[in-house]
Design a protein that fits this description.
The protein is of the alpha/beta class. It contains eleven helices and 17 strands. It has two domains: 175 residues, Quinone Oxidoreductase, Chain A, domain 1; 135 residues, 3-Layer(aba) Sandwich (Rossmann fold), CATH 3.40.50. Bound molecules: zinc ion (2 copies).
C-alpha cells in the first residue's frame, strides 16, 4: 500500500509499504479522507514542541472498515467510521480518574504514533466510532475538530441561554462557536482580524461577527449583549491580544476557556483574574461522549461544515496541500486529502 511519511522537516515522501493486518481487537480501515490540521503544518515546519520526524501524520480522518480482528464485536466490514486518535496508558492519575484524554502518557495517532496518511490503518476497536451510514467522508473526517469544540464548550457546563464570546475564527473557533449555539447558547459572537474567516463564520450561521482590526470590540459587545456582556468567553487564537481581551472584557465572575495553543508566552494581568474572580479553564482534547455529540450536531445541521472546507488535494499531492495552507494563511480553513476517489 501507499503511505506518506514526514521524514524530515518540509520533506514528505510517498512510499510503498506492506499492507498491515489487524490484530485480534483491531479493525483495518481503508482511509478515505484526511483533514489537515494546524498542528500538522507546525510539525511540517519543525515548529511543534511535541511532534518530531519521522512520522506518518493524519489524526483527523474517516474511512471504511475492510477487515475485522477475531475479537472485534460491534464493528463490521463496510461500516463507515472515524477514529478517536488517543493512545492512553490506563494507569496514571488522569486515566484512573475519568480523564483519560489528558493521560500523562498520551500519544496522539498521527502526532506521536503513526497516523492515517496511508491507504490502510489498523485501529483498536475501542477507538473506532461508527458514523451514520449517510454521513459523507468529508464530514466524517471533521468529527475530530468538532469534538474539540464540543469538549471546550462543555468545560462551561450547561450553556443553555448563555451569551458567549469566541475570540478567534479559525476552524476551531468557528466550530466551537457553532457548537455553543447548537448546545443551546442564546447568542454567540465571534471575532477575528481576518475578513475571510469572518465571512465563513457568517456562512456558518454564527450570530455576530466582529472584525477587531476595524471595529471596537467593547462597544460591539455592549450593543449585542447589553451591559452584562458575555456570560462566558472562549479564547481560540492562542495569542497575547486575545487572552488580554478575554481577561479585560470579561464580566466579573465569568469563565474563560483557554482553547488556543500558545506558541509564545503571553503576559496577562492576573490582578484582574483575582479581582474579578475569573476562572481560566484549559481544554485539550475530547472524550468519547464529545465525539457522539459532535456527530449528532453535524447530523442535525446545527454545525455546518461545508463553508469551512477550502480545498481538496489528492493523496499523491500531500506536500502541495501543506504548501497551499502555508501560502494561503488565514484564507485557508480546512483542507482535506482524498484517497481513491
Ligand atoms: Zn487536529
Ligand atoms: Zn494515562
Amino acid at each position: 500500500m501507499k503511505q506518506v511519511r514526514l521524514v524530515a522537516p518540509q520533506t514528505v515522501i510517498l512510499e510503498e509499504v506492506e499492507k498491515p493486518a489487524p490484530a485480534d481487537t483491531q479493525v483495518l480501515i481503508r482511509v478515505k479522507r484526511i483533514g489537515v490540521c494546524g498542528s500538522d503544518i507546525h510539525a511540517y515546519y519543525d515548529k511543534h514542541p511535541y511532534i518530531s520526524c519521522p512520522i506518518v501524520q493524519g489524526h483527523e480522518f474517516s474511512g471504511e472498515v475492510v477487515e475485522t480482528g477475531e475479537r472485534v464485536k460491534a464493528l463490521a466490514v463496510g461500516d463507515r467510521v472515524t477514529v478517536i486518535p488517543q493512545l492512553v496508558c490506563g494507569v496514571c492519575h488522569p486515566c484512573t480518574h475519568g480523564s483519560y484524554h489528558i493521560c500523562n502518557e498520551l500519544k496522539v495517532i498521527g502526532c506521536q504514533a503513526d497516523g492515517a496518511a496511508r491507504e490502510f490503518i489498523p485501529v483498536d476497536q475501542e477507538l473506532v466510532v461508527k458514523l451514520p451510514q449517510d454521513m459523507s467522508f468529508d464530514h466524517g473526517a471533521m468529527v475530530e475538530p468538532v469534538a474539540v469544540g464540543v469538549h471546550a464548550v462543555r468545560r462551561l457546563g450547561d450553556v443553555s441561554g448563555m451569551k458567549i464570546l469566541v475570540l478567534g475564527a479559525g476552524p476551531i473557533g468557528n466550530l466551537a462557536a457553532q457548537v455553543a449555539k447548537g448546545l443551546g447558547a442564546a447568542a454567540v459572537m465571534i471575532t477575528d482580524v481576518s475578513a475571510f474567516r469572518l465571512e465563513k463564520a457568517r456562512d456558518c450561521g454564527i450570530d455576530q461577527v466582529v472584525n477587531v482590526a476595524v471595529e471596537l470590540l467593547e462597544s460591539r459587545i455592549d450593543s449585542a449583549f447589553g451591559i452584562d456582556r458575555a456570560d462566558a468567553i472562549l479564547e481560540c487564537a492562542g495569542v497575547q491580544d486575545t487572552i488580554e481581551q478575554a481577561i479585560g472584557l470579561a464580566r466579573k465572575g465569568t469563565d474563560i476557556i483557554v482553547v488556543g495553543v500558545f506558541a509564545e508566552r503571553p503576559m496577562v494581568d492576573l490582578g484582574l483574574v483575582q479581582d474579578k474572580e475569573l476562572r481560566l479553564i484549559g481544554t485539550l482534547m475530547y472524550k468519547a461522549e464529545d465525539y457522539r455529540t459532535a456527530i449528532e450536531l453535524i447530523q442535525s445541521g446545527s454545525v455546518r461544515l461545508d463553508p469551512l472546507i477550502t480545498k481538496h488535494f489528492p493523496f499523491q499531492e500531500y506536500a502541495d496541500a501543506y504548501k497551499y495552507i502555508e501560502e494561503y494563511g488565514d484564507r485557508s480553513q480546512k483542507v482535506l486529502i482524498d484517497l481513491d476517489e
